[in-house]
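Lab notebook page, bench 4
Experiment: in silico fold of construct C2
Operator: M.H.
Input chain length: 231 residues
Purpose: comparison with the prior construct
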Amino acid sequence: MMDGVGSFGAGRTGSTIDPITFAKQPQTILRALSWIFSLVVFASIVNEGYYNVGSERLYCVFNRNADACNYGVFVGLVGLLACSFFFMLDYKFSSISSVKDRKKAVMLEIGFSGFWTFLYFVSFCFLANQWSRTKKEDLPLNQGADAARAAIAFSFFSIITWAGLTARAVQKYLLGTDMTLFTTEHMDGGAPTQPYPSNSPGGGTTETTEAYQSPPFTENNAAPTYQVPIY
């Protein structure tokens, strides 16, 4: 394992975080793109996703289906907030001292990113289907058409970025589970204990239980006195 690498792909606890290095990480770039795409989906529908025809009642540009607009707003808004939350989590990840807490954070990211990838796939299919059924006469002066196309396009782009975030989170999780630097004692918050190696033929490291023996060639082990034989 390389020096300076901690559990689950983060730096060692207490290591200094370089903002420039953090900004250049692939995960940070994907997160920023996901944030921008979610903002476009949300803002496009909220600002220009509704129109009215001779009355105060507003209709959704997606085949006058209010569920389509509501779904797009929901996915975009929650995705926007989630990206902001995971931005903070990514930046503070190295300061998390507990390996168990790091594992929970990575598993949360895997679950949410994978689920939101699926929701954006549904959003792309749903909005594209409703837009294909929208009649031209329902949109006077082609009102809201650009916003509808932007919401569909950036829903598709969001599938790619959220899938990339899911893959990065899975890679981080596998890196953490394959580590041998952190033992069970580290995970429990205690200091690791290193047993003394034995000289047994099996090569295992077992703790010796034999009593301490005095070294050879001490004063108690004096050489016997030579006696001259009598003839």
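Observations: DSSP finds six helices and two strands in the chain. Residues 99-132 form the longest helix (34 residues).
Next step: discuss at group meeting.
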